[in-house]
Amino acid sequence: MRILHILDHGLPLHSGYAFRTRAILKAQQALGWDVASVTGPRHGDSDAGVEVVDGLTFHRTIAPAKAPTPLGEWREIRAFSKRIDAAVDAFRPDILHAHSPVLDAIAGLRVARRRGLPLVYEIRAFWEDAAVGNGTGTEGSLRYRLTKAAETRAVKQADAVAVICEGLRDDLIARGIDPAKIMVSPNGVDMTLFGTAPTRDAALAAELGLDGGDVIGFIGSFYDYEGLDDLIAAMPMLVAKRPAAQLVLVGGGPEEPALRRQAEASSAAGHIHFIGRVPHDQVERYYGLIDILAYPRKRMRLTDLVTPLKPLEAMAQERLVAASDVGGHRELIRDGETGTLFPPDDPAGIADALSAMFADRESWPRRRATARAFVEAERNWSSNVSRYDPVYRALVHPSESDKS
């Protein structure tokens, strides 16, 4: 089986998107499949037309001249389609596998129809909802509605559709998409990368003033929908209950300046530590310092529909997880077993939940083991990737599928 993946971006860039892609490609290689990828104009400049990163081949697209919406997007689609077409000549795939956003699907569909190749479209989040979550779009606006219509059209034209969670599947079914056309390929963890519990770096703990502290942490991107303002707002209440409480925030993003101002004005300012972005190979040092990873996502369409990756990575490393009670988290976390759920958009509720977790340290070994076992059994990419096999085979050999 030869699969050409069509991507917004990929390695060596570091993002949840890139790491999910790496996990899929590596797991497919382990099954003996031949894989290659094409990254779109938004990946950024590359010195080479084709790059091999971590044993994976990426064909790069040169970004066209920028232009206002929608001309800019159509230029991107045209440039991307040409590059995908050239990659098809070079790689000779059996199947095209496009990953969201929808621009990738539109570009891939142009090539698929011209070349007579089947196309799987995999949706990790709806682009229109991601724009709202990132603060670059407004729900219900003309652009939102046009993007949603393009998404629905691409799903209808694709030969098969994969989604990362039940929330996205249910939404597509409500749009009139045949349930039989949709498979769920849930977020998973590459246990070769995240399957080992990190050791505590005593020197780093001392440097940050965390010795003897009850340490809460967040490692990721600082977007509004992540609810980090609620976590910071919870700190004075948590410190009143747990004077040794410390909050460590690792990463960065558009909300960072506002969050720093909020923290500086807080009565718990001395308990809040901004680390900034750190190299990927250093992230494990910070995981090792944190007792509880907190994910206080706000309640909105994006967070109710989409499951995040970070809580699974934390569970795999035997970290405790606390998260807001939104739909995406409920697909991953069983309250009181694999993690703790607290009310969304509620700083007091966050403080109460975290305080209760620190007061119940006796349960921590059991909860850590239960969470890791869940990831290993149900969210491990080495087994999750097998879900693609019957879909690919039905598209590449439809007559054989009909016989079965």
UniProtKB/TrEMBL annotation:
NCBIfam families: stp3 (TIGR04063). Residues 16-188 form the Glycosyltransferase subfamily 4-like N-terminal domain. PANTHER family: SULFOQUINOVOSYL TRANSFERASE SQD2 (PTHR45947:SF3). It comes from Stakelama marina. This is Glycosyltransferase, exosortase A system-associated. Gene3D superfamilies: Glycogen Phosphorylase B. Pfam families: Glyco_trans_1_4 (PF13692), Glyco_trans_4_4 (PF13579). GO terms for molecular function: hexosyltransferase activity. InterPro entries: Glyco_trans_4-like_N, Glycosyltransferase_grp1, PEP-CTERM/XrtA_GlycosylTrfase.
